[in-house]
Structure formats: C-alpha cells, structure tokens
Amino acid sequence: MSVFSFINATEGEQAAELCDYLISLGAELNRDLCEDDQPAVLGRIISHTEKCFTNSKAKDDDIEAVLNSIVTLVLLMPGHIAEKQVKEFSDKLSGPSIRVGKVDRTGLALRVLNNLSQGYEESSTLRYPVYLAMLRLCLASSTLPALVESNVDVVRRCCGSWNLNTSQVLEVLRLLHDTQLAVRRGDDATKTMLSLLAEYTDKNADQAKEDARRCVITHLTNSTTFLYDHLLRLKPVQILSDEPIYQLLKIFVDGNLKDYMEFYSKNKESLEKLGLIHDENLTKMRLLTFISIANDRNEISFNEIEDELELNDNEVEAFIIDVLKTKLVKMKIDDLNKKVIVNSTMRRTFEKAQWIQLRDKLTVWKQNISLIDEKLSTVAV
Length: 381
Known about the structure:
mainly alpha; disordered N terminus
C-alpha cells in the first residue's frame, strides 16, 4: 500500500490527506468533517491512529511517516491549544495497539514520541505527558533504550523545568523506578526510589507508606546492595516501624543469620505477600553475618564459618569465593589450615563510634606524616 505524501502541503491539505489515509485503513472518519478547524480535525485524526497498528496492510515505513506528519501538525499548534492533542497522541502511542500479535512497534512509537518531545523547548510542560508515555512503552516491553532518559538526576531536573507538582514528580519517579526494575537495572532503581522518598516531607510522610515499602523491598532484593542503615533515617521508612518489613530491614542493617531465621519462622506469610524470596534473603544474610564476624577478626576458621552460617562442610569454600566476588571483604584462603586471613572488610553500619575511630586514625596518620616531614628536612641535600 502506498502512503500519501505530506511534503509541500498546507496544514489543511496535510490533515485531509491524513484523514484519507486513515479512512483507507478502515477508520470511521467523516471526510467532510476533515475540513473543520484544525484542532478539531487533528483530534479526530489522533483518535483513529490505532488503525495504523491494527491494519495488517500498513507498513512500518508508512506508519512512521504518517505519525511524524501528525507530530508536525501538533507542533504547529500554540502550546495552550496543543496540550490536549499532545496527551491524547502520547496515550495512543503508548497503548496496547502498539503490540498486535507477534508484531511489536515499541521502537517505532518511541522514535515518534521522541520527535514530538524534541519539538518543544526543554522547559515546556508538554514534554511531561510524552515522557510518561515513553516510560510506559519501555515498562510494557521491558526495554530502556538510550533515547529515553533514565538518569534520575537528569529526570529530576527535567521535572523541575517542567514545573511539575509533587504528585506529578512522584508519578514520573515511580514509573522510572518500575521500568528500571523491569530491565534489571537494580542499582539505578534503588537510586530512583531513594530520590522518590526524598520528595516526601514531615508533613506528608504518612502518605508515603506504599512507596517506603517498595523502597525497602527494592534495596533488600538488589543483589549488589549490602548497606541499609541509611534507610532507617528516612521519615517515610520510620513510619513502617510497626510492620514486619521494618523489622526485617533492621535485621539486614545489623542482625545476623540466627536473627533472620527466628524472624522468618514467625513471619513467613508476610514475606511471601511482600514478594520476598526466602532463599535469596538467606544468601544475603549469610554474607552480611560473615561481614560482621570479619569486622574485628584477623582469622576465621572454616569450622566457625560452617557453624555460624549453617553451611555444610562442602559448601564453605564456594561461599568464601562468593564473598570475594562481592569485593566487600579482602582476605586470603589458607586451605592448608582451613581458615581465611582477613585483610579488610566493609562495615555494615557507620555511626558515631566509627566516625570517632576514623578521626583517630586520620590524626595518627597526620602526626606520622609530620614526623616524617621533619626528619626529611634535617637530611642534608
């Protein structure tokens, strides 16, 4: 099927040809009404754009040309008039008709929406519904291509330039977080969720319970996250203090494997409802427990690892290798004497006592440097 050409045509002629094209695909458009005022005509055209995706005769190149022609007409409209069309067009291009059977035109729709977004100034609020539509497409298809901004710091700046209210910012960040999770970008999702919770203040922290739960779950299930004490300082998280998820968080902050097993025996159903997997929790708690043991020890025997972490004899070395892969603990394996020699380890919490210890070490280091400097100054050149 050939597509109409939209080059060298007035807005009215272009709209008329778009109507003719959509009618040829089966759209129930009244050709006579395609000559009304432009906003009304464009609204009718947009309302039938799904025909581009549902009609098997339409080719991708033709579809993209038609949709970009609609973008041109939308961009020619004054901003205060175009707001409705931008939202409706964005909704159409992020709807279920994009995927028909085995045909998925997510990439095509993202390119068209990106063209629409780039047609407006960076500070234009009309970019907001377009960006939401792009995120919805990415979430539905579990993809996040480079043309869709996913850096939460950049996204927050965009939200500021678009003059979004708190509710709208939360909507953007939730959708970005879910999309990052869908494409297995756990670290990015964790950062986005923290940014989301930062939007809440003391005045509205009580409204953040669901987001706070999701924040804790995101952190606990992220395979590369092992520090959690900063979450306890967040007001929205503190509001969860009477819930099992908060108790679990505290165990992950500074508890051990035995604490977790006792908690699990009493809250098995609660964890399942939250979507937390016991085996994954168990793996991480073994690692965190080992870190606590290694904090103040130079050597740890295989037997102690086996007992404290409830491992079988043939599982110890594999566990040690997994710990080394995380780079949270620097140690050497003494296979002959069945022990590990610890060089350094990450601390699970960093509170006042640790800051004092760090200050004392830096003071000693400074004094030693000064002493060396003094001795070097007395050496004859």
